[in-house]
Design brief:
The complex is a heterodimer of chains A (191) and B (280). By secondary structure, chain A is of the alpha/beta class. Chain A contains seven helices and seven strands; from the N terminus they run βαβαβαβαβαββαα. In chain A, strands 2-3-4-5-7 form a five-stranded mixed barrel. Classes of the chains: A alpha/beta (191), B alpha/beta (280).
């Protein structure tokens, strides 16, 4: 695993340095959005209206954090399943979004859009929510407060740990990783 | 006859939903550490080390191990010789969920209607399973269940002729299809038998068993081991990055079934397998 350190916002030149299988540490601002916020963003795009945040060069983190306890910046904040956002992602990449963080596989149209618009899909460790929250230095709601945990938050993170899964060259860590470690019956019989 | 005020249930449930979300069971913690010592893939070991550390942080700071603090699934085993007083039992349990999720800073993850999707803002209603047993005790089990792993669970009505091979293939196919989505390493609850609705309930109950405890019937204990072996040969690995720890355990529970039927249900749990038990 090669370690890479990136600072947001990202340029195409930053994105192309990341390869599937890299361990990536993110510092800077990232935005949260999950199911309900994505639906609202899609409605605005369909109506030709501006989005509440400028996503050019940014990273979106698919998360609905737990409420902050007194004294905490944010509650536990691990990734949710990315596949539910597949339908919305290509349009956001076309607008200049450079990365998304979640967990689980993306569909072909997202992978194609990552190549076309030079983007990267990053996976945070699902269920490591208390650990991930420790890298979040600041959190504020910037859109849709009525959605509660599903609101859009602006997060300031320091060395937020992720793995590059789908890079801008069509590589896929989920497919390659599973292929590398799968034991086929014939192999086992030979042993 | 023993009397018990339902307010006792409310307090117990409130404490239990917090405990379950903050403190990973020792059985699961141990299984993660064991997997860490055996995993071949470097990224897999990296993930498992993160999960062990995450469980430590959650326990020390008393914060949820996962932001998805779950649908509150609650099992109530009610002794037939106890008299519950002071109000509606179901309401008392719902009140406990409401209190626990609020006081414990747990996320509200429930929408009131599946299509109109407005959050209830207190994580109710809980799913409550009541059973009546002998005696004068009340046993409560709280098992918060995350959405990501629930979404990739599956049921199939097989033909009796499909037999053991058919059951095994369906379980392995379901895990393969789930892939990286349910936060592997997973725990696989398999229900076999019963009716269409019973088999799913049995699969979920299989998830409540302590990790590492084999089925009491040797035939099924062996089937659990064979399934675990096949699943861990898939190569999915921790978080789907590749590796030989795709599942920590397979638990099978069965029920009698119809001469025409062989229902199978696969309820997948993420590594944050939370369940907490208390007897009142």
């Amino acid at each position: 695993m090669t370690k890479k350190y990136i600072t947001t916002p990202l340029l195409d030149e930053d994105v192309v340095t990341l390869k599937a299988g890299d361990q990536v540490f993110i510092t800077g601002v990232i935005y949260t959005a999950r199911d309900a916020a994505h639906q609202k963003l899609a409605e605005l795009l369909a109506a030709g209206q501006p989005l509440p945040i400028d996503i050019a060069g940014q990273i979106i983190y698919y998360v609905g954090p737990a409420p902050a306890k007194p004294g905490q910046v944010i509650g536990s904040a691990g990734p949710t399943t990315s596949g539910r956002m597949d339908i919305y992602t290509p349009a956001l990449l076309a607008l200049g979004l450079k990365g998304c963080i979640g967990k689980g596989a993306r569909n072909q149209s997202v992978k194609d859009a990552l190549i076309k618009y030079k983007g990267v899909y990053l996976a945070a460790t699902g269920g490591a929510a208390a650990l991930l929250a420790q890298t979040i230095r600041k959190a504020e709601v910037v859109a849709y407060p009525e959605l509660g945990a599903e609101a859009i938050y602006r997060l300031e993170v320091e060395n937020f740990p992720v793995m590059a899964v789908n890079d801008a060259f069509g590589n896929d860590l989920y497919i390659e990783g599973q292929h590398q470690y799968a034991v086929r019956e014939t192999e086992e019989n030979e042993c | 006859m023993r009397e018990l005020d339902v307010a006792v249930l409310t307090t117990a449930i409130a404490e239990m939903v917090m405990d379950a979300n903050y403190n990973l069971g020792l059985d699961v913690y141990q299984a993660l550490e064991d997997a860490l010592s055996k995993e071949q893939s470097p990224s897999g070991r990296h993930v498992l080390a993160q999960l062990v550390k995450n469980a430590d942080i959650a326990k020390t700071e008393q914060v949820p191990m996962c932001q998805d603090t779950g649908f509150a699934v609650i099992y109530v085993e009610l002794g037939q010789d106890i008299h519950l007083v002071g109000g509606d039992v179901s309401e008392a349990i719902q009140a406990g969920v409401r209190q626990g999720y609020q006081q414990g800073y747990l996320r509200n993850s429930i929408v009131a209607d599946p299509l109109r999707r407005v959050n209830t803002n207190d994580n109710t209603p809980a799913v409550i399973h009541f059973t009546v047993v002998t005696g004068e005790q009340v046993k409560l089990i709280v098992a918060p269940k995350g959405g990501g792993s629930e979404n990739v669970s599956a049921i199939k009505m097989l033909k009796p002729a499909d037999g053991v091979a058919g059951v095994m293939d369906f379980v392995v196919e379901t895990v393969q299809k789930a892939g990286s989505n349910p936060c592997p390493p997973m725990i696989i609850g398999v229900g076999i038998g019963g009716t269409f609705e019973k088999v799913t309930a049995v699969a979920k109950q299989a998830l409540l068993r302590e990790l590492g405890q084999p089925h009491a019937d040797e035939f099924y204990a062996e089937l659990e081991q064979k399934l675990l072996h096949r699943i861990n040969q898939l190569g999915i690995g921790p978080q789907g990055f590749g590796g030989n720890t795709t599942a920590l355990a397979v638990h099978i529970e069965t029920f009698a079934t119809h001469i025409a039927s062989l229902p199978v249900a696969v309820n997948i749990n993420c590594h944050a397998a939370r369940h907490f038990e208390r007897i009142l």
